Amino acid sequence: MVQHIPVLLNQTLEGLAIKPDGRYWDGTFGGGGHSGEILSRLNNDGRLLATDRDAVAEERAGRFSEDARFSFQRGTIQVMTEEVAAPLDGFLWDLGTSMMQLKDPERGFSFKDDGPLDMRMDRRQETTAADLVNEMLEEDLANLIYKYGEDRLSRRIARQVVMARQQTRIETTRELAECCKRAYPKKHHRIDPATRTFQALRIAVNDELDQVSDPLPKAVAKLGVGGRAVIISFHSLEDRIVKHCFRELAANGPYRIVTKKPLVADEQEARENPASRSAKLRVLERMPDGWTAKRKGGRYE
């Protein structure tokens, strides 16, 4: 079993400001690292609902099955936001791909190990990364890689993909990674040529951005007074959505942005857990009705 090390753990727990008898939701259970620490801070009256779209996460949640304070439901953030009961004292979304997904070649998330080109977080859905790579028009594939991967060589990558699939269907992560490599100039690269393409396909396959932008305001609305939303993102597209959503909510409702700048891993965590290096954490707090945000703080009206 792949060891799961939760990112920004201390910042997450501080951001949630956990009440021992509070009601919390971990919307991205993953390996359960964050959930385990939240449970350790709850008394017998506290409750934690954990959710995840991945069947492997559901299996891992079994270790808490005897804990009356804990419950698990399988589903996407978007679906579960509609079902979570209010008021919440806090919720956590740790966005992106978990280490247990990245380290399993059969899931097809990583270009470092060869495996089927899959990338589905929920394997009940039909469309895989291989379907997109082999069936999209060249222009549409290039636009997807540019939009979600922000790769300036997206058109060259799409051309290499189309040339390769004319010979035979692209089915593995290694085959796609080779297409990306051929599209890049033959020189040293700061990151692997496949990095942004794999990110773009993963986002598209799992509808990751809509899984943040659509439900986030609805989830925040379920916070009770003093309740906090803690969101961890791993790339600029997700972080931008969270930042703008929090700003809009704080400008128009009884909400306070706790983190004026996103929290990031310190040197020790970044060294010990490389997955944390790109993580950014933002916190929003629900204030009493009548509270209005001002440039130098907040006040009641």
From TrEMBL:
Organism, as annotated: Acanthopleuribacter pedis
SUPFAM superfamilies per the UniProt record, alphabetical: Putative methyltransferase TM0872, insert domain, S-adenosyl-L-methionine-dependent methyltransferases
Record PANTHER family: 12S RRNA N4-METHYLCYTIDINE METHYLTRANSFERASE, S-ADENOSYL-METHYLTRANSFERASE MRAW
InterPro entries attached to this UniProt entry: RsmH (IPR002903), SAM-dep_MeTrfase_MraW_recog (IPR023397), SAM-dependent_MTases_sf (IPR029063)
Protein known as: Ribosomal RNA small subunit methyltransferase H
Positions of S-adenosyl-L-methionine binding: 32-34, 52, 77, 94, 101
EC number: 2.1.1.199
Major enzyme class: transferase
Record Pfam families: Methyltransf_5 (PF01795)
Coiled coil: none
GO process annotations (BP): rRNA base methylation
NCBIfam families, per database record: 16S rRNA (cytosine(1402)-N(4))-methyltransferase RsmH (TIGR00006)
Top-level taxon of the source organism: Bacteria
MF (Gene Ontology): rRNA (cytosine-N4-)-methyltransferase activity
Physiological role: Specifically methylates the N4 position of cytidine in position 1402 (C1402) of 16S rRNA.
Catalytic activity line of the entry: cytidine(1402) in 16S rRNA + S-adenosyl-L-methionine = N(4)-methylcytidine(1402) in 16S rRNA + S-adenosyl-L-homocysteine + H(+)
Keywords, in A-Z order: Cytoplasm, Methyltransferase, rRNA processing, S-adenosyl-L-methionine, Transferase
Gene Ontology annotations for the cellular component aspect, listed alphabetically: cytoplasm
Compartments, as annotated in UniProt: Cytoplasm
Family of the protein in this entry: Belongs to the methyltransferase superfamily. RsmH family.
